[in-house]
From TrEMBL:
Belongs to the Lgt family. It holds the Pfam family LGT. This is Phosphatidylglycerol--prolipoprotein diacylglyceryl transferase. A 1,2-diacyl-sn-glycero-3-phospho-(1'-sn-glycerol) binds at residue 138. Pathway: Protein modification; lipoprotein biosynthesis (diacylglyceryl transfer). The keyword tRNA processing does not apply. PANTHER family: PHOSPHATIDYLGLYCEROL--PROLIPOPROTEIN DIACYLGLYCERYL TRANSFERASE (PTHR30589:SF0), PROLIPOPROTEIN DIACYLGLYCERYL TRANSFERASE (PTHR30589). GO terms for molecular function: phosphatidylglycerol-prolipoprotein diacylglyceryl transferase activity.
């Protein structure tokens, strides 16, 4: 298939440029905010509109700061040692989902401490909105022609203009858009529509994202400066996602057992 030639710059106004990727980030935040506000309007939600606005601000900081620090630590630590100021050069690119996830988890803790809410009351409320941002971000990766997949002869394989080898590849960004964005959102949104044991929604997110990312990593080209870690198949994305699956599964089991014990008291 032919890669759709989409200019990464949506609008140019003199020196000011609005990129599609930046728009995708905005869509993710606005979409998550709107959905969170909708759920907060339920009489028994325990949330106000002001709290939703504040939570979004905390999450945005967690995504940006955690994503950058995570990328530097997980994917470019040698470069950081050579030039520590590179950590602050965000305009050069480089964000890590796993680092952003850790940043958001820390943001949940800060928000819970500030508002007096329980940690999982915050996390379980927020994580069903996260796939909106994930899906939008992956679609932005596709428009930019970055983070493409491994070489493939499948009918839907594409030649990305940013690929110096010029070979047909899996559009792995779209695989991630579908699994991490659409599928994971539907699973979490439907599951969390009814009251669930504290921590189970957050745990399910870890399982869902981790499995989706590990699956897509079999089709995604590993980072050129890292390559495969072992056996010609293990990637950094897999290595970072496996703990999410294990911890998420343990959280779901703990949540239901703890809920049963509390109900029996």
């Amino acid at each position: 298939m032919t890669f759709p030639q989409i200019d990464p710059v949506l609008v140019s106004l003199g020196p000011l440029q609005i990129h599609w990727y930046g728009l995708m980030y905005m869509i993710g935040f606005v979409g998550g905010w709107w959905l969170a506000k909708t759920r907060a309007q339920r009489p028994d939600s325990g949330w106000t509109r002001e709290q939703v606005n504040d939570l979004l601000f905390y999450m945005a900081l967690g995504v940006i700061l955690g994503g950058r620090v995570g990328y530097v630590l997980f994917y470019g630590f040698d470069r950081f040692l050579d030039n520590p100021l590179w950590l602050f050069q965000i305009w050069t690119g480089g964000m890590s989902f796993h680092g952003g996830a850790l940043g958001v988890l820390f943001a949940f803790w800060l928000f819970a401490r500030r508002t007096g809410k329980r940690y999982f009351q915050v996390a379980d409320f927020a994580v069903p909105m996260v796939p909106i941002g994930l899906g939008a971000g992956r679609f932005g990766n596709f428009i930019n022609g970055e983070l493409w997949g491994r070489a493939s002869d499948m009918p839907w394989a594409m030649v990305f203009p940013t690929d110096p080898m010029g070979v047909s590849r899996h559009p792995s960004q779209l695989y991630e858009f579908f699994l991490e964005g659409v599928v994971l959102f539907l699973v979490l949104w439907i599951y969390s529509a009814k009251p669930r044991p504290a921590g189970s929604v957050t745990g399910l997110f870890g399982i869902g994202y981790g499995l989706s990312r590990i699956l897509v990593e079999f089709f995604r080209e590993p980072d050129a400066h890292i390559g495969y870690l072992a056996g010609g198949w293990l990637t950094m994305g897999m290595l970072l996602s496996l703990p999410m699956v294990l911890i998420g599964a343990a959280m779901v089991v703990w949540a239901y057992r703890h809920d049963q014990r509390r109900a029996a008291v």
